[in-house]
From TrEMBL:
The lineage of its organism: Bacteria, Bacillati, Bacillota, Clostridia, Lachnospirales. GO terms for cellular component: membrane. This is ECF-type riboflavin transporter, S component. It comes from Anaerotignum lactatifermentans DSM 14214. It comes from the Bacteria. Keywords: Membrane, Transmembrane, Transmembrane helix. The keyword Transmembrane helix applies. InterPro entries: ECF_substrate-spec-like.
Amino acid sequence: MRTKELTKTAVMAALVFVAIYVLKIPGPNGYSHLGDCMILISVLLLGGRKGAWAGGIGAALADLLGGYMQWVLPTFLIKAFMALIMGYVINKWHHKGNWLAGAVLGGIFQIIGYTAVKIFYYGFATAMVMTPGLLVQTAFGLVLTSIFVGVLGTTGILRKVKEM
């Protein structure tokens, strides 16, 4: 059982990495990517803790190999906590749509976390100018996750993969 869980976590970390590293969407303040969507799906498939490992490792690896060395540790921590928050909400609230509430709260944490790090790196004014791009990226991830969850849930694939 442990090998199976480790394998699923590693596969999701690889999907997070690919969704960030390969599928970049250029923007005025950097780039957006599909990684947040894969992190949120990781939480749905693996749970909060394993989803946090998959999201943190995949995103940090994308920063490392993408040449953004100064972002490796902040990205690992921010993405992992985003996933943990979502997982916590899913476990505590037992009604339909709780994953979305958790994803939104995790997304808010991500925006605050990255903005705080950007204030430290670049100063307050620059961080504030970059925040709208982060809002768009986070919203994009939430919308894409909603679409994927709808499609995968309707076809039963989400349940089957979770049970594997």
